[in-house]
């Protein structure tokens, strides 16, 4: 099957964050389903979407955002025919499991899937680089008894067997009570368990036979019996399956019962109501295989970010603008010293300082001219400053003899005529007026540089209002620099590179990443939207743009997520999967390397901090609480409380905050 490459990237749908690795699960399962469909078509075997897959097919023509598996169902007679032909029809990499053929099987769910982790390139390519085992689950539908009393008796028997099965799972089979109940069941069902072999598989096999007890006896209702053992009302009419309807689903089509309404109501009640399916204890489904993958690939597989206290440290170094303002502050301080010495009558000290300052101002101007080119307003005012300094020097030098005599008198003016003293005072103060203009020119010409580093065009809307607002500030120079990104293979290596610079150019002016020297430019602030560094299994930015590297070239590294989700409450069971998926965008290096992160709300900030505490410790949580703002997101538009205005305000405060070097 072919998928557009964008299909595999992270997205938020129905307020739920879907990581790219889940997209690969979906694609791999659809590939497996295509094999099943081919077999079913050849042998005229009916099958239908089931459970969450059926729900997604009907409601969205797609996987439900928080679903991580693909389920189908077959009526028992179709399933029996499928069992006879499936194994000889599967490609080598796929296996069929079912209690009917795997006598030791400990599951009522049959499946076709990838069960081994051999990581052959050909298999990885075919199954869309998903490196873990995965399968399409098959649920078998059986008939209920025509007589309600018979059905009630069957459910009692199944309840007894289920209780015994639970006892086996909990290691109670050697107790006297268990053995007594086991004997009672043997007498009731006229069977004999082989206690020299594992009992669990035997119980599954017996229960599977009980599921089939009333097939073909004229019952009008159907059910997936293992599910009905838990949800007794989950049964639906046989007539629901008299016709099949094909509906669009993701990148293909799926068959569903024409009367899907009866089936979905039996399983979910009001299935139109969106429910996020509770906790995330078994989500995502590949978690149980992660250790196997690490052992198989060893040093080739390193997608587990381990936090270090060093990640919170950021050595600050001045850029050219910082050093220019520091130099200006030094000149201003020296200039004040000149005036203080003048007022104290220390003309000789003034002359010495003036000579030093003129040399320093000339060197300062030369450095700025190299950086800004000829015609710089800053250099022009520095030249006027030097000229005023020279006139001051000449005036004081000429007045020096009078000043020596004045020392014999009280006060710095001594015998100076008042008019002459006033003139000297004005001349000595004149350079400071130009020095003030030098600072204004520095702030005008050497603006704070804010560099945005998006990867994909769709991220543009998440920062565009902020970019436009900053661009209107006189002392800020905003740049958008699209950066290249790579797909990853299932074994972790980087694959195809993508660069969307041309697409960005259709919307705005961009800076080419190939022509920008981060070491010499040292932008005042860098805004990133991809905080994963090397720890994303599906894609990666160019390693140069990893957050751990970016913070070497700026004193203010900012992370702004390019998405918003529904609000997440870590204490709410329904948000279990959503809170679990925060692993993909919170427990990543960029969040800890960043000096400032702006998330979509104050409540979401609390969720971030809860995830951080779970990942690290309470002390790190405390430190990170100072680095995260819940100001909002530009994706909320003009919302006064959490939209663009609040984001712009929070960003400006951070940008203008003076850094301690």
Estimate the strand proportion. Answer: 5-15%
The major sheet is characterized as: 7 strands, mixed
Report low-confidence residues grouped into runs of 5 or more. none
Mean pLDDT: 92
The gyration radius over C-alpha positions equals 37 Å
| First-to-last CA distance | 55 Å
Helicity range: 40-55%
Based on Cα principal axes, name the global outline.
Answer: elongated
Question: What is the count of DSSP helices, taking H or I runs of 4+ residues?
Answer: 23
> How many beta strands in the DSSP annotation?
20
Give a short summary of the structure.
The chain has 661 residues and is α/β, with parallel strands linked by helices. Strands 3, 4, 5, 6, 7, 8 and 9 form a 7-stranded mixed sheet that branches. The two termini are 55 Å apart.
Jot down its keywords.
661 residues; alpha/beta; seven-stranded mixed beta sheet; six-stranded parallel beta sheet; 23 helices; 20 strands; 13% strand; elongated
Structure, described:
The protein is of the alpha/beta class. Helix content is 45%, strand content 13%. The chain has 23 helices and 20 strands. Helix 1 packs across helix 3 and helix 5 (148-169) runs antiparallel to helix 6 (176-189). The longest helix is centred in the middle third of the chain and has 30 residues, at 377-406. The protein is elongated, with a radius of gyration of 37 Å.
């Amino acid at each position: 099957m072919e998928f557009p490459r964008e299909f595999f990237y992270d997205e938020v749908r129905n307020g739920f964050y879907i990581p790219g690795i889940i997209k690969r699960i979906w694609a791999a399962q659809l590939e497996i389903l295509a094999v099943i469909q081919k077999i079913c078509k050849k042998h005229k075997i009916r099958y239908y979407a089931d459970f969450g897959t059926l729900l997604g097919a009907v409601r969205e023509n797609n996987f439900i955002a928080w679903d991580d598996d693909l389920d189908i169902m077959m009526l028992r007679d179709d399933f029996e025919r499928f069992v006879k032909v499936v194994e000889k029809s599967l490609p080598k990499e796929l296996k069929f499991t079912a209690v009917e053929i795997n006598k030791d099987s400990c599951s009522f769910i049959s499946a076709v899937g990838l069960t081994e982790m051999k990581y052959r390139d050909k298999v990885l390519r075919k199954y869309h680089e998903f490196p873990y085992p995965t399968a399409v689950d098959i649920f078998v539908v059986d008939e209920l008894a025509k007589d309600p009393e018979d059905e009630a008796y069957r459910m009692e028997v199944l309840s007894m067997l289920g209780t015994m099965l639970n006892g086996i799972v909990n290691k109670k089979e050697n107790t006297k009570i268990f053995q007594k109940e086991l004997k009672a069941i043997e007498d009731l069902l006229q069977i004999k368990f082989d206690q020299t072999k594992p009992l669990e598989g035997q119980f599954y096999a017996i229960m599977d036979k009980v599921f089939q007890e009333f097939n073909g006896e004229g019952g009008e209702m159907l059910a997936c019996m293992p599910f009905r053992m838990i949800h007794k009302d989950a049964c639906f009419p046989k007539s629901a399956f008299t016709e099949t309807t094909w509906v669009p689903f993701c990148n293909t089509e799926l068959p569903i019962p024409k009367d899907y309404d009866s089936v979905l109501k039996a399983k979910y009640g009001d299935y139109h109501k969106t429910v996020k399916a509770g906790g995330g204890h078994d989500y995502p489904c590949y978690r149980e295989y992660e250790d196997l993958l690490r052992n198989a690939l060893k040093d080739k597989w390193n997608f587990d970010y381990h936090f270090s206290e060093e990640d919170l440290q950021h050595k600050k170094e001045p850029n050219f603008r910082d050093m220019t303002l520091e130099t200006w502050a030094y000149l201003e301080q020296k200039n004040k010293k000149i005036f203080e010495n003048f007022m104290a009558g220390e003309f000789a000290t003034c002359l010495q300082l003036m000579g030093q300052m003129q040399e320093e101002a000339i060197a300062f101007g030369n450095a700025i001219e190299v950086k800004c080119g000829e015609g710089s307003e800053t250099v022009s005012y520095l030249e006027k400053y030097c000229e005023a300094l020279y006139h001051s020097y000449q005036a004081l030098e000429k007045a020096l003899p009078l000043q020596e005599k004045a020392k014999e008198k009280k006060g710095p003016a001594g015998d100076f005529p008042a008019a002459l003293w006033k003139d000297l005072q004005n001349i000595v103060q004149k350079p400071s007026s130009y020095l003030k203009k030098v600072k204004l020119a520095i702030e005008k010409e050497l603006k704070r540089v804010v560099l945005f580093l998006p990867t994909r065009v769709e991220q543009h809307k998440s920062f565009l209002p902020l970019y436009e607002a900053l661009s209107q500030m006189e002392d800020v120079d905003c740049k958008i620099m699209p950066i290249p990104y790579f797909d990853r293979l299932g074994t972790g290596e980087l694959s195809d590179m993508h660069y969307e610079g041309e697409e960005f150019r259709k919307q705005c002016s961009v800076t080419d990443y190939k022509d920008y020297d981060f070491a010499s430019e040292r932008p005042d602030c860098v805004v990133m939207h991809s905080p994963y560094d090397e720890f994303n299994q599906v894609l990666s930015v160019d390693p140069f743009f990893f957050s751990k590297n970016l913070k070497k070239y700026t004193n203010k590294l900012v992370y702004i997520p390019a998405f918003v989700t529904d609000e997440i409450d870590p204490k709410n069971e329904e948000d279990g999967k959503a809170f679990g998926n925060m692993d993909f965008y919170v427990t990543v290096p960029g969040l800890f390397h960043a000096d400032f992160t702006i998330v979509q709300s104050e409540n979401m900030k609390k969720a971030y901090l809860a995830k951080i505490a779970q990942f690290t410790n309470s002390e790190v949580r405390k430190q990170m609480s100072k680095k995260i703002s819940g100001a909002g997101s530009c994706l909320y538009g003009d919302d006064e409380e959490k939209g663009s205005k609040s984001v712009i305000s929070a960003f400006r405060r951070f940008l203008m905050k003076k850094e301690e070097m």
